[in-house]
Design a protein that fits this description.
disordered C terminus; single chain; alpha+beta; 19 strands; disordered N terminus
Length: about 425
Amino acid sequence: MALFSRFFKQTEEAPRPELGVLLAERSLPSDLPGLAELTKDFDHFSAAERVAYLDAVAELNHAGVALPEPWKFAQYEVFPELVPHWVGEHEAFFHRPFCEGLTLRVRIGDLRLTKAWAVLFETSMDEILDQALYNLHEKAKDAGFERLPSGIYQSTFRDPCVGPSALLLLPELWDHLFPGQNHFLAVPTQETLLVAPQVLLPKLLEATTKIIAATERVLLATLLTQVEKKLVVANMQDPHPIAQPQRELRQLDLMQALRAQDQDLDPAVEGMAKPMPLGTLRNSQGRTLTYATWTEGPAIALPEVDLIAFIGAKGEPLGIYFRPTLPRIHELHGTVIPIWGPRRSRFEGFPTAEQLARLEVFATAEQMKAMGQDTAPKPAPKPTTPAAANALNTPGAVQNTLPPNPPLPNNLRGTVLGIQGDD
C-alpha cells in the first residue's frame, strides 16, 4: 500500500497548469491567432506536455512566426531543402547532415522548421521529414532531364515549392541516366541539378563553373558522385585533369563559409578573436594552396588553411610556413573558438624568429620581400619532411569566382610560389 501511496502522492503533486496561466507566464496573448485550433486537445495533455507545448508556442511567437495549421492540414505543405552544411549550423532551424557539404532541412513555404513545430504538430521531426520526402516524390515523380549540347543532363523540374537541387534526395530519378557508368552530379545553385558520366566530367566542370560565375549564392561548388548508393565528394587524384579544378571548387565552398563566419568573429567577445585575411597561392605545378595572414598584434582566429604568412608589427614580411607544422611551436597554445562552421583556433602572442625557424618553410622572409618588387616566380625551398610535402595536398579554401576576395597583401600579389622544378 505504501508503494501505491507514493505513486498517487506524486500524481497529486504535479497538477496540470491551466492554459491561461502558461500563456501569462510567457507573456502571450490568449487570443493568439491559430492557438485555439492547436489546443483543442489541450485538456488531455499531461503537465509536462502542456509546458512543452506552450514553450513551443512562445518560441515561434517570439521569433515572429505565425502558428502553423494542425498537422492534419500542414502535412501536405512540408518539403525538404538542401543547404550548405555551414548554413545549417549558422541558422537556428532543424537540419540533418545529408552528404559532405550539404545538410537537409524542412520548410513550409518560406518558413524553415524547428523542433518547436514538431511539438505543435504532436509528431516527430523524423515523421515530418518522411512526409516532406514523400511530398517531394509525388511532385517530382514525372520530372525529366534535358540533354544539353555538351552531352550532360540537366533537370527540367520546376516547382515554386522546391528547387531541382532537392532531387539529389531521390536518386531513383537520375541514377539510371547513364547505365553501367558512374554518375557525377553538380548542384551549384538551388535551381540547378546537373548529371554526367565520368567521360563528360570536363563538360560538367565547365557548366558548373559557368553557373557559379553568374551567381552570388553558391549551394555547393564541389562535384559529387554516387558510390554504393551514397553520394560522396568526387575525389580525383593527380594527374587526373579534374583533380586540381575539383580542389579549387572545394576551396570555394570552404572560403564561402569562412567569409560568412568572419561576420560573427567579434574580438570584443570573450573567447573570440579577429579574423585573418585569407587567400590562395598557386605553386609551379599549378596547385592552389590556401593561406591566412598573421600580423603581429591582437589575438587571431586561425582557420585550418594550408599556409600561414607571418608579418611583423611594422609590416615586415617574416616568411610563409606550412600551417600543419605550427604545433612545433609548443609555447603557442590555440583554443578552439566556439562558433558555427569551419573550425577556428584562437591564438594569443606571436612567434619569435627562433620559433618560426622550427616550422616548415614555404617562402622565406627574403622571398616575401622580393615579391613586393618583382612578380616573377621565385624559387622556394623544398619541404624537408613528408608531412610538409603532404601539406601540399591539403584541400583549402578559396577560388576566383566568389564575390570579391579580400585583397592579397602587397608583398604577395601576382606571385607564383611553392616548390619549383629542378630545371
